[in-house]
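ok trying again, last paste got cut off:
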Amino acid sequence: MTTAPATRLSPPGSKHRPAGTKHKKRGRTPSEWIVLVLIALGALIVVFPMLLLLINAFKSPVDYANSNPLELPEALSFDGIKAFWSGNNFPRALWNSVFISGMVAILAVVLSVLNAFAIGIGRVKGRTWLILVFLMANLVPQEMLFDPLFKLYDDLGLLSNPWSVIITFTVIQSAFGTYLLSSLLGTFPKEILEAAAVDGASRFRSLRSIIVPILKPTLSVLMVFFFIWTWNEFLLPLAFLNTDDSLTVPLVLEQLNGERQTDTTTLVAGTLISIIPTIIFFLIFQRTLTRGITAGAVK
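nice, full thing came through this time. structure:
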């Protein structure tokens, strides 16, 4: 006696796909194409100034005067780069910018973590109002800080000293970092810290071994932003740094623009050189930056 093979019942409404057929790949919808076009246009707008710098930085003054800014140079000329590098004390200004931006990035992140740990997790009364104060500190125009800080640093003998800029922007940048990290640590599960306390961990040990590793992607993002923001600062460094040995890269570019208004190729070459360190810094921390931005997207 033979039995018929058992047939597999399909749920109602299901569609059978013949054997050997492949799943047809779905094409892009019109809305997706529109988004892609907008993204491409946005990328082109961002890259366009860089292309102008690359094209015109290697032109001679005569070539620049007789050609369109969008035209390629007839021959590569490094005169503008050499003139800017040797005639404006650029190596010293480059070191000042790297030192100031690096110190601000490190100190502001450390200060932000300590403040946020006390406000977000510690038992601080009026936590919401404190976070609001740090948020409002970022809204204060720098012009309001010009006169009182200038008098303060003059009395302390810190004018034309890089530490006057470091102290100022460490406080400014850490205000934003404190606001951001306090909001994150406000939702941190306290059961983890209580379990660590039961095991004998001090508050500093909990901060160093538990909080900081969890916040590492976010701290990396803050460090990159603090570095770039400080690198591009102009107004307050212009007020505090008055000697040639204390100037930063933006101040050297402005000085060149004031002294040599007709030497456009040197100014363009200097602008190109001045943004290379920030690009290198960004490329070094690109993977860390991407991880920090996407860290909260996946639980």
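cool. The chain has a mean pLDDT of 81. The CA atoms of residues 221 and 289 lie 5 Å apart.
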